[in-house]
Amino acid sequence: MGRNRINNEDLFTTAANENFKKHIKTQSKQALEIIKEKIDWQNLLEPIEERIEQSKTRKSNAGKPSFDLLVIVRCFLLQRIYGLSDPRLEEEIADRRSFQLFLELTSADAIPDETTICRYRELFARLGLDKILFRQFNKQLEKMGLIVGKGTLVDATIKQAQAKPGSKRDRDADFTKKRGKTHYGYKGHIGTDLDSDIIHSVEFTSASIHDTNLFPDLITEKENAVFADKGYTNKARKCNLRGKGVYCGILDKGYRNRNLTSKQVKRNKQLSKVRNAVERPFAFMKQVLDYDRCSYYDMGRNRFEFVIAAWVYNIRRMVTLTT
After folding, report:
1. What is the pTM of this model?
2. Which residues contact 72 (CB under 8 A, 6 or more apart)?
């Protein structure tokens, strides 16, 4: 555990805190205040703590690093929102008053150093705590009525590997082709709520795994309609959905010697207007979070990165829909 501390105790008096809140109302600080207030942090962390304790009971080598879990999870959030490396995150916590308040640090508390953050990331990746965090947060969104569940939009995006092809540094990444171009890396798969745009399902695979293989994991099987692009086209799947009374909004696909009919082309255009909404989370990750490629050299940590980005997107939707 890092032992570096915030030394100026005067900054942590009640008067100083109130003065800061009164006179410094930056957009960034206000956003962190809203996030801090709207999330039930105790409820969010309970299943994660239980999973960590189970790993200790089973005498695995996972262990539990000696640091406040609430601080670490909020550090992950800050890191993804502001695009900070582990060393830079440590520096910013020591320097930025809004970060200190968000993490609820006092002069008696140690600041998580870069080694601590890295160790916790590996723990989350190894035990799948990132997905537990995501699912638990979504349960809060469901209680708030923000995940309606009437329809699902399904899609996937390619995430370029940090390693170069042929380097053998990343043994989990592999190749895929899209529109005639070869890509090396991974795929992030999501299912989003038709009404709220909130991501309700998330998966992460190597790039060679075809999008259609993840379809069953991205729908709730409670929705009344499902929309997806032509990559998910499957005759049996369409019949299965329709047999259950679910509206099948999967685009039709043309084949060699069998082009789409004019009716199918028209249908695809109409469905695309609905389906295209699933691109918004990917655009947010790329344009707002500056998350265009993977940062690590293995499946676990890269999955963690994608799931945390999906969590941040859902937090953003929660704030938008409730303020």
Report:
1. 0.89
2. 112, 116, 117, 120
